[in-house]
C-alpha cells in the first residue's frame, strides 16, 4: 500500500490540518454571505472531492472564500437564494469554456494592483459588515452605508449588555487568532481559527451567555438545486453582470493563489488552463446543488503545503472529512456563537488588505498604488463589479500612457533650419503635446523633422504631422524636411 502511495502518511496528516482550517471558514463564510451554514460545507466538500481530483495545481485547496462573501451577499439580496445556484452554475460553465479556450494564462496579465485593490475593497466591506454581526446588529446593505453607519452602531452596542457580551466574544476570537501565532509550533498544530471558535463556544456555554448561534437546517434540507423559476432570472439582464463578476473574481483569485502556492513548494507547477477548468467544474457542481461559489483559497493551500502535503490526495481527503462531519455531526454547528465566526472573518478581512504592498508601491510605483486605492474605494463606494471594472480601466489607461512615452528634442543654432527630433512611441495620447511644441516653433524658419528615432508612429500622429508640415510651409517658408522612421528589419529565420 505504501509503495503504491508513497506519500500517503504525509498527505493524510496534511488533510486533517486542512480540514481543521477549512471547517470554521466554510461555516463563517456561509453565515456572512447570508446563506445556510451547511452550504459552506457543501462547497468545501465539492472543492475536495471534485476540484481536488482534477489536474491543474496539485497542492492548492478550493472552497468558499472570504473574497467572494461580499459579492454573494449582494447577489442573494438582489436576486434571492434560489438564483444563487444559477449564477454559480453559469460562472462555472464560463470558467470551463475559458479553460478549454486556453484563456487561463491571460488572467496572469491582470494588473496585480487591480487584484490587490479588489481584495482590499472586499476586506474593508467584510470587516465593516462583520463588526455589526459581532455586536448582534443588522448591517446595512451597501458597503459605504456599512462603514458610515459604524459610529451609530457603536453607540447602540454601548447601550446594550447583550451587544457588549457579543462584541467581547468576537474580540476574544480575534485576539486568540492573533496570539495563537506566537505560541510554540507544537501548539499551532491545532489551527488558530478552530481553537478560537472552540474557546468562544466553551465560554458561551459555561457562562450561559445569551448570544446568537449558528442556525442548523440539516445538510439535505439546505441543498436546493435551482428550479425553473430560478433559471427564469436569466431573463433579467442585471444578473449577467453578477455572473461576469463571479467568473472574473473567482478565476483571478484562484489563479493568483496558484502562482503564490507554486512559490511555496518545489513540486509540479500549475497548469493554468487546467486549473481554470477544475475551478469551473467545481463551481458548476456547486451551482447545481445551490451552494456557494468556490475559489482556490491561499490560507488553506499554504496550510496544506506547510503540513507536508505531497500530492492532491491531501485535498481530496480533506473533502472526505468535511463530508463525514456534515453527515455525522451537523448539530454541533448549533453550538457555535455567531460573533466568533464574525471575529474569524474580521481577521480574514484584515489579511485581505495589503498594507505592506501599498507602502512599497507608493515608494516605487505611485501610479500602481493609486490604481490599488481607487479600485478598493470604488468597491466600497459603488459595488464589487463596477469597482473592479474601474480598476481594470485605470490599469489599461496607465499602460497605454506609459507605452506612448515620447521625447521631443528641439535644436536651434540661431541660423539655418530648426531641428526637431522625435523618439519613442508617437501615439494619439501624446498628440496634443507634440502639436503644441511644433506649433510654437517660429513660422518664418525652415524646420527639419527627424522621425528616425520613433519605434512606433500611429496613423493619427502621422496625419497630424503631415497637416502641421503643410501649414508651416504654406506661408512661403521652405517645406518641412521629414526624415522617416526606419522600417523594422525582419529577422533571419
From TrEMBL:
Give TM regions: 79-101, 113-137, 157-180, 192-214, 234-256, 320-350, 370-397
Record keywords, A-Z: Membrane, Transmembrane, Transmembrane helix
Cellular location(s): Membrane
**Highest taxon of the source?**
Bacteria
Domain (SLC26A/SulP transporter) spans 8-375
What is the protein's membrane topology class? Answer: Multi-pass membrane protein
Matching InterPro entries, A to Z? SLC26A/SulP_dom, SLC26A/SulP_fam
- Descriptive protein name: SulP family inorganic anion transporter
Organism, scientific name = Streptomyces doebereineriae
Amino acid at each position: 500500500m505504501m509503495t503504491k502511495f508513497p506519500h500517503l502518511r504525509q498527505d493524510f496528516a496534511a488533510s486533517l490540518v486542512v480540514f481543521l482550517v477549512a471547517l470554521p471558514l466554510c461555516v463563517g463564510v456561509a453565515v456572512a454571505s447570508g446563506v445556510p451554514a451547511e452550504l459552506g460545507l457543501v462547497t468545501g466538500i465539492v472543492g475536495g472531492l471534485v476540484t481536488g481530483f482534477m489536474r491543474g495545481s496539485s497542492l492548492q485547496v478550493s472552497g468558499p472564500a472570504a473574497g467572494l462573501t461580499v459579492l454573494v451577499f449582494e447577489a442573494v439580496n438582489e436576486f434571492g437564494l434560489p438564483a444563487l445556484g444559477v449564477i454559480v452554475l453559469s460562472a462555472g460553465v464560463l470558467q470551463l469554456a475559458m479553460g478549454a479556450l486556453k484563456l487561463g494564462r491571460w488572467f496572469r496579465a491582470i494588473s496585480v494592483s487591480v487584484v490587490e485593490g479588489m481584495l482590499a475593497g472586499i476586506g474593508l466591506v467584510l470587516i465593516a459588515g462583520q463588526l455589526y454581526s459581532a455586536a448582534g446588529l443588522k448591517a446595512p446593505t451597501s458597503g459605504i452605508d456599512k462603514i458610515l453607519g459604524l459610529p451609530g452602531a457603536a453607540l447602540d452596542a454601548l447601550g446594550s449588555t447583550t451587544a457588549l457580551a457579543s462584541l467581547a466574544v468576537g474580540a476574544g476570537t480575534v485576539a486568540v487568532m492573533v496570539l495563537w501565532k506566537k505560541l510554540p509550533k507544537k501548539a499551532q498544530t491545532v489551527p488558530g481559527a478552530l481553537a478560537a471558535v472552540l474557546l468562544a463556544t466553551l465560554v458561551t456555554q459555561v457562562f450561559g451567555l445569551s448570544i446568537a448561534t449558528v442556525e442548523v437546517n440539516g445538510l439535505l434540507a439546505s441543498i436546493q438545486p435551482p428550479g425553473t423559476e430560478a433559471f427564469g432570472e436569466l431573463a433579467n439582464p442585471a444578473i449577467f453582470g453578477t455572473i461576469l463578476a463571479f467568473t472574473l473574481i473567482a478565476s483571478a483569485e484562484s489563479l493568483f493563489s496558484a502562482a503564490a502556492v507554486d512559490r511555496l513548494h518545489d513540486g509540479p507547477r500549475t497548469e493554468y488552463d487546467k486549473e481554470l477548468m477544475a475551478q469551473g467544474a467545481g463551481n458548476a457542481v456547486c451551482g447545481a446543488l445551490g451552494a456557494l461559489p468556490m475559489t482556490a483559497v491561499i490560507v488553506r493551500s499554504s496550510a496544506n503545503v506547510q503540513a507536508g502535503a505531497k500530492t492532491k490526495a491531501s485535498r481530496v481527503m480533506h473533502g472526505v472529512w468535511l463530508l463525514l462531519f456534515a453527515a455525522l455531526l451537523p448539530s454541533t454547528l448549533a453550538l457555535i456563537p455567531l460573533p466568533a465566526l464574525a471575529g474569524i472573518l474580521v481577521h480574514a478581512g484584515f489579511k485581505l488588505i495589503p498594507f505592506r504592498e501599498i507602502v512599497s508601491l507608493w515608494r516605487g510605483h505611485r501610479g500602481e498604488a493609486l490604481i490599488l486605492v481607487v479600485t478598493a474605494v470604488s468597491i466600497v463606494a459603488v459595488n464589487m463589479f463596477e469597482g473592479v471594472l474601474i480598476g481594470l480601466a485605470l490599469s489599461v489607461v496607465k499602460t497605454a500612457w506609459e507605452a506612448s512615452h515620447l521625447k521631443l528634442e528641439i535644436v536651434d543654432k540661431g541660423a539655418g533650419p530648426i531641428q526637431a527630433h522625435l523618439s519613442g512611441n508617437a501615439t494619439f495620447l501624446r498628440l496634443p503635446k507634440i502639436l503644441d511644441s511644433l506649433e510654437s516653433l517660429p513660422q518664418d524658419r525652415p524646420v527639419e523633422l527627424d522621425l528616425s528615432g520613433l519605434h512606433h508612429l500611429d496613423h493619427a500622429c502621422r496625419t497630424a504631422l503631415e497637416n502641421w508640415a503643410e501649414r508651416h510651409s504654406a506661408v512661403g517658408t521652405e517645406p518641412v524636411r521629414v526624415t522617416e522612421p526606419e522600417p523594422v528589419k525582419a529577422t533571419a529565420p
